[in-house]
Design brief:
The protein is of the alpha/beta class. Helix content is about 35%, strand content about 20%. Strands 5-4-3-6-9-11-10 form a seven-stranded mixed beta sheet, with helices on both faces. Strands 1-2 form a two-stranded antiparallel ribbon. It has a two-stranded antiparallel sheet with strand order 7-8. The longest helix is centred in the middle third of the chain and has 19 residues. The radius of gyration is 19 Å and the shape is globular. Bound molecules: zinc ion (ZN).
Length: about 260
Amino acid sequence: MAEDTAETTPGVPERGRRRRKIAAEPAAPACAMSIHAHPDDQEFTVGGTLAKWARSGCRVITVCITSGGAGSNQSTPLDMTREALVPIREEEQRRACQALGISDVVFLGYEDGVLEPSIALRRDLTRIIRRYKPDAVVCGDPTVRFYGKGYMNHPDHRVAADVALDAVFPSAETRLIFPELLAEGLDPHHVKRVFIHGAPRPDAFVDISSTLDAKLAALREHKSQMGQWDPADMITAWAREQGKSRGLAAAEAYRLMVLEGP
Ligand SMILES: [Zn+2]
């Protein structure tokens, strides 16, 4: 939300510098829902923000669309099965949420690695948004296919973000989309703000200096994925990089959508 202001005065050298007006950090919502594809996705990306909000009294609900049954190439033993891995990863996610101060964790039970942008998934996310009525939803950026030269965004991440946004708008707030949800007693709900992480041009920044340790502690709970690797150096560098443009030592950066009411 920072905007460049052309506060210059022609011919006056000391007025010739472009000044950047820094927008205040967005206030913590009263209730936030974090929607991601896999256990550990939220810890890598938005854990510092969620811990900070939780400490300020925000109710945070973590939604894991899959339970991470596909594991990872580096850390999953060859004799591991999807069925055996699912309860391990769900327990790791619960413990990670505890480290962040989050007590509500919902697993939707979709298959890891083959997520599709289906109407069934949109209905499930709409249902859960209407049930918990979050003011803010936190999710990824479905438009990003490539990050740098070395990482192609996981298809499950793109799908999770895409369907989360579709559920926020229009499904959650429109009465006659998924009328079967009305029959379940779930009335329309308008989400006011969407925090999109991993966006190419972020415009909202959350200072996570006070919760970087909690973010790291939460990440380390994903033991089946971390193996011997300590994420501290990489995550600290990410936080520094994301805060750099705002003079923050550690931040998580977002594209912030402030949605008009229905
Ligand atoms: Zn993931």
